Amino acid sequence: FSESAAKLVTTDGIKYSTDDDGSIAADKPLILEDMQPDVPKTGVLVFDLPPSKVKGSMLEVSDLFGNGSAYIALGLS
């Protein structure tokens, strides 16, 4: 997994990239982790954005080969 494949998308369509320094400092970064179907993996992705943009944001995860993206509702309020 490359953290550059993950973006936080706000309700107004703005996309925020992960904060590399924040992710490295996190307890469980996902940098270069191996991801497999049906195998749970937990970790931390850090994004730097204004608090006013958090509500309703979704996580966009793109395929490393450019074949598509998945959107995950985070339930942020």
Structure overview:
The protein has 77 residues and is mainly beta. 8% of the residues lie in helices and 22% in strands. It has a four-stranded antiparallel beta sheet, with no helix packed on it. A hairpin with a 6-residue loop joins β3 and β4. The chain is globular and about 35 Å long. The mean pLDDT is 82.
Task: Supply database-style keywords.
77 residues; mainly beta; four-stranded antiparallel sheet; 1 helix; globular
Tally of contiguous helical segments = 1
Radius of gyration, in Å, reads 12 Å
What portion of residues is helical? Answer: under 10%
- The geometry reads as globular
Summarize the structure.
Helix content is 8%, strand content 22%. The protein has 1 helix and 4 strands, in the order ββαββ. The mean pLDDT is 82.
Task: Compile the SSE list and pairings.
Blueprint lengths: L5 E4 L5 E3 L2 H6 L32 E5 L6 E5 L4
